Amino acid sequence: VARLCVCDLLVAQCDANCCCDPDCSAEDFSLFTTCSVPLVTGDSRLCSQKAAVYSLDVEANPPERIFKLIDQVNPSIFCIHATNYKQALYLKSPEIPTPENFDQLLEKFGGATFSAEPDSWNLDPDAKDPPEANETSRYEYGVPVQTEDAFLRLPSPVVSSWCSDANPAGFLVNQATKCIRSVSVEKCDSIQALSMLFYINSSILAVNITVQSIVVQSVNGMRTFLSTGDVLRLPMVLDELCINAVLGVNYHITHTDNGEIIEAAAAFVLGAISREALSIEQSFEISFTQENTQPVPVSGNPGYVVGLPVRAGFQPQGYPFPAALLFAALALSSNKHSQLTILQSTSTQDCLAAQGTRAPVLFGYNMISGCTLRITAAMKCQLLAQTLLDVLTGQSFPEYVASFGNSQAHDVLDWVPITQLHISEQMISHTLQSSCQIPVSLGIEVKWTKYGSLVNPQARIVNVTATITSSTLKQLPSGRERIIPITSSVVFTDISSPAEPSYKAWPTINIKLPFDFFYPFV
């Protein structure tokens, strides 16, 4: 139990206030304010077991960590005296029924009782191990990606903005970091973190990291894509410049559906460093894609993250679910199909000039935008109404919104239909002749709630309403003009119910138990 530590999350680093972290030194313990996990035990169902107790002696100078190993007794009368059934400590893969072995399995396990002892199982010793037997190259979510010497490095700032190379890349954890690296032009060829070899010289178990592309950046920031990306370029000093220094690395990992990495590639941004520079900013990114699938951007895992785009899509004809999903993450200047976007304000405030310019709806951000439309008597009502509708909703307004940030297209219940409402209001005008109904505003209300544990609630969208408001515009006489404001808005509403104590759900029983109800126990 002394080796167990549930708060030890960082690899080869000391976790703050984690008194059982073996990576922490006495100097680290002196800076702790409390022990986040004061008691560590094994199986709570055991009758008697060892327990590790951690505390801080704040009166000492400097403060010290106190560790004690005590015997803990379970007060329950129902407890496990000894874990003597070793087969219960692991899961044995069952034999898969096939047409060849079905009768044999039916004879062995088809009765009212059967023996579960492993020795009594008639296993074929010549049979090959199932695929689950070899787990050395398979990963679970968040496990550091192993290399031949250690783990795949993804430098990141830890305490300050300076780069730390001890940050491991976790499996299926998409990350993007930026940090500052101290450099010296005279020694740039000997600084490992500036060389491409530092990031590709170790293979991920049996998978070599290949160079996918190289982009060279000049001193003034101009970038050039190299057609021969497989050429290794090492940093070197040339004309008082350090060229081929690594400014950015983008890892792309391809894996199977059972967690086995089959391909790893790295895209580099190399640049030149002047002699006056004492430090540079490096950027690092890693993404994971399952084989035979297209990478899908997410806006949270699972709940939405504030500031990321609200994911939307269509339900194509013939499909019972939104199959084609296109997202708003990359559309700031153009309205791509099936994005939840609103009109983006421009400097000219001209609605006709702003047509096609869209801004993504970002989760948690209340937004408002608009433009003005100059109407003349020569404008046709039907054409004007359709033009304004395209300005407000875009060329293709989505039908569904993902309830979670990582909702998949095939999960039917993870998609919320967008309810569209149309409201008409009268516009007062002293001009006469015929009237015209034109849309003047689009209001989107997104209702969301906190889902899951109270400790780590996840944002979930439960309802989306798009309200288009139209006004009646009287026909203008010849030679007259009018300027009408057109607006779009998005409002996010938290409809989470406040947490209530669970005991309120239980009824109160006002009875008196007999004095010997618990006999012979106290």
Describe this structure in words.
With 522 residues, the protein is mainly beta. The protein folds into three domains: 2-73, no CATH class; 143-290, no CATH class; 308-426 and 433-494, no CATH class. It is built from five helices and 21 strands. The chain has helices at 26-29, 102-109, 197-200, 351-354, 381-393; strands at 39-41, 48-57, 64-73, 156-157, 163-164, 175-182, 209-217, 223-225, 236-238, 241-255, 261-274, 279-290, 312-313, 341-343, 358-360, 367-376, 400-402, 415-426, 435-451, 458-474, 481-494. The strands form five sheets. Strands 6, 7, 8, 9, 10, 11 and 12 form a seven-stranded mixed beta sheet that branches. The chain has a seven-stranded mixed beta sheet with strand order 13-17-18-20-19-21-16. Strand 4 and strand 5 (163-164) form a beta hairpin.
Order of helices and strands: HEEEHEEEHEEEEEEEEHEEHEEEEE
Largest sheet: 7 strands, mixed
Regions with little confidence, pLDDT below 50 for 5+ residues: 117-136, 320-338, 428-433
* Fraction in helix: under 10%
Radius of gyration: 32 Å
How far the N terminus sits from the C terminus, by CA atoms, comes to: 31 Å
Signal peptide: 1-16
Region (Disordered): 116-137
Keywords: Cilium biogenesis/degradation, Glycoprotein, Signal
Protein name: TECT1 protein
